[in-house]
# Entry
Amino acid sequence: IILNGQAVDFTVNLPTGAPRDGQKLLIRIKDDGVARAITWNSVFKGVGITLPTTTVPNKVLYVGCIYNADSSKWDTIALKQEA
# Structure
């Protein structure tokens, strides 16, 4: 999923399709130069991390997730923010 040039606050919604157990999902987010609020659908769960609630102006954010069929959630296991 690529969210580029976000000009408003936004929600990362439930991905479409039928995910498989262990399927990976990489989300790349960048705003339009203004910090934007991020809301996460409840299907995303932080595992050892806290899901970000805002963007950092002009910085790319990568969010790595793995689908957990036991909980029917996307376990978010990695965050990397551009320096």
Notes: The mean pLDDT is 96. The two ends are 21 Å apart (CA to CA).
